[in-house]
Amino acid sequence: MYHDLPSDTSFWLFLFSIDQDLAETTRKQACPCGGRLHRADYPRKPRGGPDDLPDQYGYRVSFCCDRDGCRKRTTPPSVRFLGRKVYLGAVVILVAAMRQGPSPRRIRELSKLFGVDRRTVARWRIFWQEHFPRTPFWKVARSRLSPIAKIDALPRSFTEAFLRHGDLQQGWGKLLLFLSPITIAGGLEIKA
Ligand SMILES: [Zn+2]
Fold it and tell me: Which pTM was predicted?
């Protein structure tokens, strides 16, 4: 069953290591003003993960320009946090996907597994089916997944495309990396 998260801590550390690479790439690019980027992380309290979620999940890496008069923030993309959503990115994908398909999991079961309630799951469904398909990211990225990814099947199309074959941990890494452009400021904005 690929509709699952790897259960061991190494999975969460693996995602953290991808985030560290993404952060290092961002840091090297420096601020558009030419200033250097200094760490200025955001504290986070992500929900939906296991009880032994590593301490590194208590913050999201972010940077601040060191030049007076600029001090602009730059937050790298993430495979752990889906924008401002409180739940871990993988959980926002997985729970919504589990509600789809021929035998959707019951809310009661999902609540027990991830601590989500009916309203939260309903919000995620609207997010994946109505908001996300209208983002500039998806308009470009969908061609890379088609014809597998039908909008009415999002986000299940993602789990089908990335998690069906091969190593589950690597599959999740690739899926979350694919979606990581929507995790930065403006990534989920819809321009008219
Ligand atoms: Zn700057």
Answer: 0.92
Ligand 1 center to 74 CA (angstroms): 9
Matching residue, tokens 């930065």:
184
Q: What pLDDT does residue 1 have?
A: 45
Mean pLDDT for the chain overall:
92
Give the whole-angstrom CA distance, residue 7 versus residue 22. Answer: 24
Burial of 165 (0-12, 13-18, 19+ CB in 10 A): exposed
Residue 83 backbone phi and psi in degrees, to 5? 55, -130
From the CA of 105, how far away is ligand 1's center (Å)?
Answer: 47
* Inter-residue long-range contacts of 48-55, CB under 8 Å, 24+ positions, other chains counted: 48/87, 48/88, 48/91, 48/92, 48/95, 48/114, 48/115, 48/116, 49/12, 49/88, 49/91, 50/7, 50/9, 50/12, 52/9, 53/12, 54/9, 54/12, 54/13, 54/16
Query: Ligand 1: distance of its center to the CA of 76 in Å?
Result: 15
**Ligand 1: distance of its center to the CA of 73 in Å?**
8
| pLDDT tens per residue across span 131-154 | 999 999 998 898 887 665 666 789
Residues within 5 Å of ion ligand 1, judged at the Cβ atom: 31, 33, 35, 65, 67, 70, 72
Instruction: Please tell me the distance between residue 44's alpha carbon and the centre of ligand 1 in angstroms.
Output: 24
Q: What is the DSSP letter of 79?
A: S
Contact 35, 99 (CB under 8 A): no
